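> forwarded from #structure-qc
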């Protein structure tokens, strides 16, 4: 009986096995790994399976053109390819490790962070969107009205929930539950931090102003959506796509929106600007780090602190206060 069970478990059709293997890796990770392997093999001209020397040469050839994080991702992709195909992993060889450390020493990376969206800027963009929605409605420009209503929902839900860009584009209508006058709950079967596939639910409040819930409902009602992706592309004739927005389209969409609404330096913003903006707003208004982590979904303090900026980034207030105290002390002594 035991043997028959073992045989039947290994006799699954290959398509079924492929389905489960495919589901074990997030689409973004899979696509980036495929792109990295293609770059090594096609664009650079490397051979697979690779030797440690060829991987080291690949790193050296791209040390000045690619960032440390990109090179690290390329190594991870090559390692994954070799492990999956049953070959020894050349990226763990001493020569590869030494070359990578040398690149880190000679080309130190300065992390670039998206500029956080401030509350004043959020209100500015929403005001412009509200005016644009009214104008497009009065002039019968349905495609423009759809686009503005959708963008308002993306902006407010992205900010108040601190969602990542890929979470906004993966959100499904059937996974959103709205409680009138109270708020909404958004469920994701898997998130970046959810390695156990347990699923995560995030709640967003109904607010008296800049409300993400009413913005979401306005978009769903205007677009006539009942199921599937929440945020979708809209063509010039006002046809709403059946597919969700691609994650890569969110940054240019937001930058274009910020530029049209008059936000200064729009190219310094990305989808992470909403997440960082909320984190900074929350800490400035008294949220402790534990509450912020639970709300946004961060699993460790290091992840949270990368998004939070000090209210006094140059320590100007603190130093001036200390100087003033020191000056008073000197004055007392001199008297």
């Amino acid at each position: 009986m035991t043997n028959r069970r073992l045989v039947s478990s290994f006799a699954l059709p290959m398509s079924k096995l492929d389905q489960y293997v495919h589901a074990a890796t997030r689409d973004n990770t899979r696509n980036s790994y495929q792109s990295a392997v293609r770059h090594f093999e096609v664009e650079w001209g490397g051979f697979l399976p690779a030797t440690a020397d060829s991987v080291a040469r690949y790193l050296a050839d791209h040390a000045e053109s690619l960032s440390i994080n990109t090179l690290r991702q390329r190594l991870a992709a090559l390692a994954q390819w070799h492990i999956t195909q049953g070959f020894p992993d050349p990226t763990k060889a001493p020569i590869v490790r030494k070359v990578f450390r040398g690149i880190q020493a000679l080309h130190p990376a300065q992390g670039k962070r998206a500029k956080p969206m401030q509350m004043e800027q959020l209100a500015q963009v929403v005001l412009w969107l509200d005016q644009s929605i009214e104008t497009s409605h009065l002039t019968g420009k349905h495609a423009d009205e759809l686009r503005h209503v959708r963008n308002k929902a993306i902006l407010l839900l992205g900010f108040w929930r601190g969602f990542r860009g890929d979470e906004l584009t993966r959100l499904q209508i059937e996974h959103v539950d709205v409680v009138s006058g109270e708020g909404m709950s958004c469920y994701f079967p898997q998130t970046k931090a959810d390695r156990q596939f347990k699923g995560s639910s995030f709640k967003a409040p109904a607010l008296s102003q800049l409300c993400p819930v009413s913005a979401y409902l306005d978009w769903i009602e205007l677009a006539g959506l009942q199921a599937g992706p929440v945020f979708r592309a809209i063509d010039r004739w006002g046809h709403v796509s059946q597919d969700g927005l691609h994650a890569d389209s969110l940054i240019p969409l937001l930058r274009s929106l910020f530029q049209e609404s008059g936000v200064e330096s729009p190219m310094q913003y990305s989808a992470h600007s909403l997440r960082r903006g909320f984190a900074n707003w929350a800490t400035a208004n008294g949220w402790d780090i534990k509450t912020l982590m639970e709300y946004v979904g961060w699993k460790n303090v290091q992840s949270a602190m990368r998004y939070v900026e000090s209210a006094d980034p140059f320590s100007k207030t603190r130093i001036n206060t200390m100087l003033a105290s020191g000056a008073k002390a000197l004055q007392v002594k001199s008297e």
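QC bot note: The chain has 15 helices and five strands. The longest strand covers residues 183-188.
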